[in-house]
Amino acid sequence: MATLPENITFMSDQTVADFVLPATGGTTFKLSAARGKSLVIYFYPKDGTPGCTTESQQFRDLYSGFQKAGCEVVGISRDSIESHENFKARFSLPFVLLSDPEEAVCEQFGVIKLKNMYGKQVRGIERSTFAFDKDGVLRREWRGIKADGHAREVLQFVQTI
Hints:
Blueprint: E1 8-15, E2 20-23, E3 27-30, E4 38-43, H1 50-61, H2 63-68, E5 71-77, H3 81-90, E6 97-99, H4 104-108, E7 112-117, E8 120-125, E9 128-132, E10 137-143, H5 150-158
Parallel strand pairs: 4-5, 5-6
Antiparallel strand pairs: 1-10, 2-3, 4-9, 7-8, 9-10
């Protein structure tokens, strides 16, 4: 039997507690309201940084494929809505970005980690992605991933659910 890479965990029939966060476009996002379509939530460390920009651009470039698969994409970081609006506009991102400055949803998903940055330990978001089916059931998660190429892998999985 093949083993999975450490950064991929298969989930089955796991639901996630509902949450509400402020979103770009002057709206709010409620997890339970997203039912009826598949959903990808990707957590990223910071607007405008190289890896986060690459990841967001690749989700943008593949967005029509996600839409064809009946899937919505949402990005979450601790940045402010103002920062998200600038990031979204600068890179023409077609999906909403959610602001979690209090880290409540980040904690719920277990993506806040101690990271080494310039020899110091700092709290930050571990780049992670979660795929839900149309019934709101978490079907797969990726943790500690590399930004480049990840969106394509997620799309390939979404096309199977």
